[in-house]
Model the fold of this input.
Amino acid sequence: MIRHSHGTSESWKTLPWKKFRRDLFRLQRRVFKAVRAGDKRKALSLQKLILKSSSARFLAIRQVTQLNAGKKTAGIDGKKSLTFKERFELEELLGTLSNNWVHKGLREIPIPKKDGTTRILKIPTIADRCWQCLAKYALEPAHEATFHARSYGFRTGRSAHDAQKVLFLNLNSNVNGIKKRVIELDIAKCFDRISHTTIMDNLIAPRGVKSGIFRCLKAGINPEFPEQGTPQGGVISPLLANIALNGIESVFRYHKNGFKITDKTPESSIIEPSIRYADDMVSAT
Done:
């Protein structure tokens, strides 16, 4: 357990960041393997170790306050940045309350869209974002072990370029791409309408983290849809969306000739599972 009597810039910069990353990755890899092996109890125990790890907490604070694009964005408390002393204090707070974290409200920022409408970006406080990042470190490896192979959005080691490559290989002339068609699906207001029940039912996490995620979801609910939606400005929101949408790649399938798929439809007549990036999906056949 690392403790510093005074939080100075020098003491922050000299922290062993490479060692922190190695320690965290080692735990995350064990979580991934445990879920793959079907040992959920072991995975939950390892997730608790991540929450207790000072390495993970320091990395979460550094990610939110120094590395993320929105690091200077204030939450409802108006705080845009943390002093070095406040970062060390927050690390201790996360260590004490990681299993019983209570989210504050969300700051709402209207963002104009190309079609003339606006979407509401909901921003948690810096402390809440740090907790979300810590929770993400514990949740991500568990769910990476279960995510569909054709999902590319907001996943470690995957990008839009990977999705483009799969489409290119399936549509080029060597595989009769000129005779194929592309079917696109976009889920309207996906982040605003995701079911809280679906997320919570599919979450692989210790009880304390589940409670924290539930409070996170309820912190920025729309009064008209109290059981739906995730805060789009949250660090963990993309992961929660992937958890809720996982598996839809295989459901979104069509008969090559446009006919309805039945139990007797041969697999050779069905389009391959879709390629999904967040809430956008494409099938090519």
About this structure: The radius of gyration is 21 Å. The chain has a mean pLDDT of 87.
